TrEMBL record, chains A, B:
This is Kynureninase. It comes from Pontivivens insulae. Gene3D superfamilies: Aspartate Aminotransferase, domain 1, Type I PLP-dependent aspartate aminotransferase-like (Major domain). Its cofactor is pyridoxal 5'-phosphate. One of its GO terms (biological process) is L-kynurenine catabolic process. The gene is kynU. It catalyses: L-kynurenine + H2O = anthranilate + L-alanine + H(+); 3-hydroxy-L-kynurenine + H2O = 3-hydroxyanthranilate + L-alanine + H(+). Its EC number is 3.7.1.3.
Amino acid sequence: MTDFAATRTLFHLPEGMIYLDGNSLGPLPKAAQARLTQTLADEWGEMLITGWNKAGWMAQATALGDRIAPLIGAEPGSVTCGDTLSIKVYQALAAALDMTDRKIILSDTGNFPSDLYMAQGLIGALDQGHELVTVAPERIAETLSEDVGVLMLTEVDYRSGRKHDMAALTKAAQALGIITIWDLAHSAGALPVHLSTCNADFAVGCTYKYLNGGPGAPAFIYVAPRHVEQVRPALSGWLGHEAPFAFDADYRPGGGIERMRVGTPPILQFAALDAALDAWEGVDLHDLRAASIALSERFIAEVEARTDLVLASPRVAEQRGSQVSFAHPHGYAVMQALIARGVVGDFRAPNLIRFGFTPLYLSEEEVVRAAEILAEILESGSWDRPEFHARSAVT
Amino acid sequence: MTDFAATRTLFHLPEGMIYLDGNSLGPLPKAAQARLTQTLADEWGEMLITGWNKAGWMAQATALGDRIAPLIGAEPGSVTCGDTLSIKVYQALAAALDMTDRKIILSDTGNFPSDLYMAQGLIGALDQGHELVTVAPERIAETLSEDVGVLMLTEVDYRSGRKHDMAALTKAAQALGIITIWDLAHSAGALPVHLSTCNADFAVGCTYKYLNGGPGAPAFIYVAPRHVEQVRPALSGWLGHEAPFAFDADYRPGGGIERMRVGTPPILQFAALDAALDAWEGVDLHDLRAASIALSERFIAEVEARTDLVLASPRVAEQRGSQVSFAHPHGYAVMQALIARGVVGDFRAPNLIRFGFTPLYLSEEEVVRAAEILAEILESGSWDRPEFHARSAVT
């Protein structure tokens, strides 16, 4: 059994805070501070430009990918890190569209908006008659057809936590000649993912949520080994070139997943991410999933026993990721009141209060206490104060 | 007069090293360590998700752009930071192509290869008959015509240090209806740049060279205020949306330069960059340019007095950026021998040894000593050892 009491000691958690927002930004791994200090003092400071070789900076994009690969069921050498998730979505989608003559990109209305925006931007730039079609999540399976070129989905819905059946949808899509792109933003580090077993074509994800890589941590991209040598990168940057330091005039894609690298990688963010990934050593993802479900179920039960809030996530645990949302017409103010009491979740428009469950550092006692505080706030009406209604830029 | 003895104290420079490679990666600003520690401990660690508001993370991309703007002669609010330089080249080029029906992108053979690669990738993805034409740098002016849609140049050549006349070329291009994109990778922090005065349309640059932002520091992009509200972003990520946290289904570009943001910004890299930019407070860029020329001229004179190396940079200081290259048939080995003696420059294929001059932290004594050591290595033939010929991944 994974020792979650031990993994909890690896993170800094602020005194008096119950943190139910690791699905937005994971907490600071205690090892990150020393790792950053070392990267600055011993590497950047002392090695300067030679750090690209001596400290191994140049190889880190794919070395980190290899550390993430087992968490998402990917083959070694099939994942590389860098850029942002939006950029990686663009790369995957541009590559997928290049592999098919079909013009329809199918997604769902629960996909994270930036994925849809990147598709819209790519379609506009290409000006080749592509179309983004979005349907309700539960209608994806029935909408698959031989007119669809690419199925682009986020496995776990950022608002409701509803989880697609990756294996079944990938199989159904591929039977119709559709290429699949899976966004794992709310999956990687939240639950077991089986990219290789599911025969996924492309996947992308971020590392600042359940992987605890820090604010603005780099994204990752997966390309199935059966495709990668044929993939034509639209974002053909020098670090994806076969020989970046030959400084050739013409782009030649690098071997394997290396071609999905673009520009100079963010070494300070890499250092923090590398420290964060240490926490996964010895973690069994099935233990993680069981603990996540236990925490989520307990929270739902405690909230429903104490309040009349309406669950906005699937009732069946296996159909959820590692987060739970409730609807409240004044969700924003309720969440601000919760945060003021030290219970940090977040609000998602129009009316959802959202809570993430992260067994690496979250205990059952905290989950129960969070439900108690939520009930107190609703019971007393203390959320209905002007300061809790005032909107800030990021919610 | 700028006090360069004072700015030197702001950087950590390794004992016994003469660093002539600030044009590849600037040294560690002493303030960066404390800034990172603060960002990790006080912001990420204590504020967690609320750091996006409380610590101002969300506003930093454009706040940092506003700190860079005066260094490149840009209007306030016209620069934003993030991603890599290759991504920013793609954004600028996609936006520029969207503004013209002409199909030719003109660049020169001295442009940094990644800029050309990104153009090739974009052209391939668009599949609309665009063509990248490259000519020798000195032939750019005569090649401008009404067939050219976009002129995409790096102001200072990464190999030779040759500097284009931005004002003259921009004017000549615009007289023919050509849109200009300037890559300032080797200009920002190296010499005065006057984007607004030159009437440039787009500019991009990196911050890890002369701006000392650290390995993988974010890039920046400039869009002329007269264009920005019409620019249609190809990389239409959520942080470039008018209201990112409304989570609308459709992309609507944000106001002004905000629309050139893409995904979640790299906050740890931003912290280091912000610390690095402190060094520019009180620096007069004309003093910087004068000091850079003095250092470069002294180095050329000392090298030519002691060796028969052939200058591969323009002879006239005003035609160079802040770097100087010499040709040597075994340039790679010579540079390795120099590095082994503590003189760090770099090698650029096929045969250039390259030296950057950075008055913020480099003294005339160091420059003279570097020339002496170079002369000793060439005189003794000590560069001709197997260990100096062995290639590593990054040179």
